[in-house]
Design brief:
By secondary structure, the protein is an alpha+beta fold. Helix content is about 30%, strand content about 30%. The chain has helices spanning about 5-15, 25-35, 75-85, 95-105, 145-155, 160-170, 220-235, 255-260; strands at about 45-50, 50-60, 65-70, 90, 110, 115-120, 135-140, 180-185, 190-200, 205-210, 240, 245, 265-274. Strands 1, 2, 3, 4, 5, 6, 7, 8, 9, 10, 11, 12 and 13 form a 13-stranded mixed β-sheet that branches. Helix 1 (about 5-15) packs antiparallel against helix 2. The longest helix has 15 residues, at about 220-235.
Length: about 270
């Protein structure tokens, strides 16, 4: 997927974003660039009408598909599904047009782990509270090695590398002033929260958030999220969203963290299988 194709998907996502949307522009950038050299595993296609992207499909694993459709062109949902013919399609429970198209093409809803879509206003954010000796701050280009190290510690088995994260940092709409870390007394990074700003819609997406296991249960995840949300509010955002996984084995405490931060659920992802 070229940067131009990704930007077309992001422009559709931004133009039509609401609580009925399955994606945020930052989510698309993170998925595209967090791992190096994965294009050979993917297939994708964009549908244009009048020179603008109106629908897209993106398969990141054999048999699976993510889909986006402009609400003004619901007829394209069937075209995307038929073109890819996947076994499983992930969409949002607030997208009846896509779900109806899936049922027409022989798909039924299945149960399993899902993304729980949560939101909160950025009003009345408390100050981060930190253990003695810890601080929070935004990263700089000189922090690349430690920034990647804390992500790798928080997400064992991740394919994020210094090379791929450097690409993330060069991608739109990444901003280093919205990439926050908690710094331990020894100078190592103990927790991190990257928040992506959609300026047009005034909404920031937390993705990803994590803490080094050596520093968990110190309140650092909460502190670094609050710091990032206060930073994105300072540059114009009014709302934050986050999509923790429910039902999976990884990071089972994420949902409790976000709810304790004042997030409330508004939607969930759903899988349809043929």
């Amino acid at each position: 997927m070229t940067p131009e194709e990704l930007r077309g998907i992001q422009e559709l996502t931004q133009r039509t974003w609401s609580h009925d949307s399955p994606c945020h522009i930052g989510d698309m950038a993170w998925q595209r660039y967090m791992h190096s050299d994965r294009e050979g595993e993917w297939s994708w296609r964009l549908w244009e009408v009048d020179g603008q992207v109106r629908a897209w499909g993106w398969s990141q694993a054999p048999g699976d598909l993510q889909i986006g459709v402009d609400p003004a062109h619901p007829e394209l949902a069937d075209e995307v599904i038929v073109h890819f013919g996947p076994k499983t399609v992930t969409t949002l429970d607030r997208q009846p047009v896509v779900q109806e198209a899936l049922r027409r093409n022989g798909y039924t809803r299945t149960d399993g782990p899902y993304l729980a879509y949560h939101s909160r206003s950025l009003d009345h954010l408390p100050e981060p509270v930190l253990p003695p000796g810890f601080t929070v701050r935004a990263v700089t280009a000189d922090d690349l090695v430690r920034r990647v190290a804390v992500h790798q510690a928080a997400w064992p088995g991740t394919k994020v590398t210094e090379q791929s994260y450097r690409t993330v940092m060069a991608a739109w709409p990444y901003r280093s002033d919205l990439d926050w870390v908690a710094v331990a007394p020894d100078g190592s990074f103990a927790a991190s929260c990257l928040i992506w700003l959609d300026e047009a819609n005034g909404v920031g997406l937390l993705e990803p958030v994590g803490a080094d296991p050596r520093f968990r249960r110190l309140g650092l995840g909460r502190a670094v999220c609050l710091a990032a949300m206060r930073a994105v509010r300072a540059v114009g955002a009014r709302e934050a969203v986050v999509y923790p996984t429910v039902g999976g084995s990884a990071h089972p405490g994420a949902l409790a963290l976000y709810r304790a931060l004042g997030f409330a659920g508004y939607a969930r992802s759903v899988d349809f299988r043929r």
